[in-house]
Batch of 4 targets.
Target 1
Amino acid sequence: MSRGVAVDTRPHGWEISRRHWDIVHVHHLAHQALVQSVIRAGSRLVFTRHSTELPATTRRLVLELMYQRADALVVLSEAERKLLGQRVSSDRVTCIPNGIDGARWPYVQRRYPAPGEPWRLLFVGQLVPVKNVDVLLRAVVHLDPSLAVQLDLVFHNNAQEHELRRLAADLGIEGQVRFVGQVDHEKLPALYAQAHVLVLPSRLEALPSVITEAELSGVPVIASAVAGVPEQLDGHGTLVAPGDTRELTRAIARVFGAYDEAIRRAISAAASARSRYTIDAMIDGHLALYRQVLSRPSRRFLERRL
């Protein structure tokens, strides 16, 4: 809006009026993805999925319909672009990473734990199967017993909370795991500031904002090598195979054992993130895309001609 563009944001359940829009940009594979891909309107259609997961059959049909009908598709990483492969013509796919307001995530210099202080692992996300939090709990169990370790789980979706609490108890680490729950966005930087390592063991991602937030905050990152995560870390973090408990355990132990090196890499990661994942770059990318989309005929118009 600050660039002179009239923007109206609506939820997926919104009943569409007959007002003419230059562009309708749908985010996520939900209700409006289906609605906007089948209606006949003059507006151009842009779609950002924010996921690389292969959906169930019905949702997969909606996704394919959106791929066919959208005038442009936005992907968050080059890895996601490659996943589209030959299904979508390359001239309709644009990579625009999510931007983060760096001012909200001040850099904090890391340090080794003080005597009597535990190593603090942080997970930020959802307690859902795709995040592999159970793998993280099992990795904590396999760490050297002489290490004092605390794991903080920050989440806004508690679907697996009961199951994971029971697992922590069965593994004998319930005293080491804090189920923090939902945290106001304004208070999250303080949790990053206290953490020694952010761990994201997901089996699927797109371009997780929590990794960018951690990088901006100076937190060393260990994460699964999926989707756009390797691009985000850009050699500055530690990548592991998703679902491999022992590899994740070894990665955590290596970071603890060479924390000075992890700190040096985190400093480079912060500088990289502040240059690559800015709000301005995200806005510039979208405005350039919108201009390009408006300069060519709508795919719906072409369909009617055919």
Target 2
Amino acid sequence: MRKATKFTLAIVGVILLLVAVGIVYFVMRPLDVLVRLERRSLARQGFAKSTIEAPTGPMTVWEVGTGPTLVLLHGAGDQAGAWEKVTPALVSSYRVLIPDLPGHGESAPASGPLTVGMELAGMEALVAGRGEGSPVVFVGNSFGAWLALLYAQRHPGQVARVVAVNGGALRGERRDLSLMPADRQQAQRLMDAIRDPGSPAIPGFILDDIVRQTRTGPIARLYASAADMENYLLDGRLGEVQPPVEILWGEADQLMGTAYARKMEAQLPAARLTLIPRCGHVPMRECPTTFTAKLIGILREPPPSSRPAPR
């Protein structure tokens, strides 16, 4: 009896220790925990994870479904799991591809500077290897929207439509905000700018982890080649993007406000702006239900028509 009691107590002790370790890990690295949960969600939804060879090295791609090809592109510093709350409503109608962009998630390279050119090379490898020869629809958030517009400019025949979600190829307007916060206060200021004021407050330990990740993660590696980014801006050249563009915008975003979205709409040959109230810079995470409904509605409509060229 005593042996059984001791064994039970030992098991309980091990469980409590594991729980304590899990809590400590979550507090120390909550963003890593979030990433794991998001990627497990994609796997539970039936996404198959594989790799393709890109000029930047092996590139991880998640894929499921049949129908027109829909490519979902995450933002800088993010990974494929960012879309996991949106995908359940898409996989019945589309073949959905979600890459980890080069240098993000599980895609190579794991270290060293990243450039916009490297990210574009990864997208070209993705479409060449998994596009199945038909024009694809890109849905890109933030940096992913920038890449989608650049790809559409360079390869118009391979793009059926672009959905730019709080991102674009124009120079940003909020140079007072740093995407690489140095401390908790700067991280809070950045989060306040990219989220709706009514969204739940972010705990301090998560703000600290944001500071940690941005110092060494993909955003820092992209900033290491910041001067090269100027070569990929399309200020005054958005007219070169021929495929139709849907501009789907979280209205509460203060990092890239609605004035930025309207500027893109005015300069693109075929564009339509749809606003999402009370959503910020990353609406597929902040308000996934509303965002998904707007996205599906947009994709069911005919794309915007080209405006007549000025005489």
Target 3
Amino acid sequence: MTEAWIFPGQGSQAVGMGRDLHDRHPEARAVFEEADAALGFGLAALCFEGPEAELRRTEVTQPALLTVSAAALAVLRAAGRRPAAVAGHSLGEYSALVAAGVLRFADAVRIVRRRGAFMQEAVPEGEGGMAAILGLDAGQVAACCEDTVRAGGGVVQCANLNAAGQVVIAGTAGAVEAAGRLARERGARRVLPLNVSAPFHCALMEPAARRLEPLLAELPFVDAACPVWTNVDARPETRGEALRSALIRQVAAPVRWEETVRGLGAAGHTEFLEVGPGTVLAGLVRRTLPEAHVRPAGDETALAALATAAP
């Protein structure tokens, strides 16, 4: 079996996500109930009904996305499906660890709520920023960031290496703007400021990583049932302790998604399921591995279609 399961991160949330799974599948409903109990508030209601402004708060978004992915995962497991490998984009790595049996879901949903709060608190809102640079390769974007920093522009670096010609930068607001201007001067097709509440996956997140580390140290991590491709190293890992370390390091380090997808392809994975809301990762996989077959697996319509296909 060559099927790899990939799990989305922040940005894939939408009001209404997961409701159809909750209403139609008792195993998915149990996941939402477990999340509500673990967190002590009605996360399910926020997923289903919003308000959108609340769902977009990082400390809510992160457990909400994890829970919807875990609900879809529960439906897949009930149908007898298992992945050959897993990977998740940023926050999605926690979903991948739940899928691989490394972390218990209740532990994961509690820790990502804390992770979201720590990341939000690391940089006061408005002082940081992120932007997507389209049309330059990673080396060119890194050079724009380095030249900006060298000129005294502040902190800015590559944060998400998503696909060829699609790199996200993060840092102090002024530095991100300056690096974006430099990228345009050097041939970027577009520079798109992102509507985010904090500059994720850059050095400004080091305080969040330090606060998260002792909490992760308290949680049981077991060895993975299948390879987990980590964001920070872009290679497969099964050892529980190494996967714990990767979660700490990924907070302030770039998400090496393009390398991860290429590595999965080189390892023989030609079938991908995007387990969770949206299809952002499907698009990135197709750009990186045009020959790959990527299917959504985050809502009732998609899961019903999978049920008629051979695992």
Target 4
Amino acid sequence: MSLSAPFYHGLLRKYVTMFGYIFDNIRIERVDKTGDIDLVKVPITYGPKDKMIARVIQDPTISRQSAIQLPMMSFLMTGFQYDPNRKTPTMNRQSVVNGSNSGNKYYQYSAVPYNIGFALYVYVKNAEDGNKIIEQILPFFTPDWTLTADLVPEMNIRADVPLVLLSVNMEDSYDGEFKERRALIWTLEFTMKGYFYGPTANSSIIKFIDVNVRSASSNNLINAVGNTGVSAAINIQPGLLANGQPTSNAAASIPVSQIFSNNNYGYVVSINDQG
């Protein structure tokens, strides 16, 4: 790890945003005294349960506007845990062509798998509102729901991220005098199976390989390179037909300058006897 080369893919921010986005459009129906049906959007915010309960119960302004403030939801990222079951070989790497320079490419080593914990809290004034919200969530988790996200766009990394529902609990916070406000709180625990990626690096694309073969006696192999002549020269380069098919025929291939690393090219091998 090099502290002199900082990098940031914004993955934590993306995971938090993804989680909140899932529950951002929940609505429940309310029937007024005239029989008309109103759709009430359930707001969601990021914050711990204790702080949200204090806002709902203790703040006199919010208490007087309980019909507007409840129901509501909040969520919190609760922790991380390394997941060895999803580990891939550390030295595996993915590469893409640098769009601005066809002779270079970006590469990145294998991602590191982590399970990210989330908790979703649902605050309601009556049990029926809670039932309406929970029943809009549970059918989608069996017990996981997979999201697809562009995690590292510059590397074209678009990954499936499963979100697993672990548990559902309900707590009735009514405790005290009759005039005190009641709050029903549902707690849903989740695990998001995410990945964290390291820095990207540049490297040149190798299009030509030249190998010189030297002959030497069996008792003088160590000094062969410096003391003997070249007996054969081997050249390897990519070969591609104009229709995009690979070829090993140099005469039929398009110019090497027009062949890129993401093409399905073949190999043109030339052996020249220098003896």
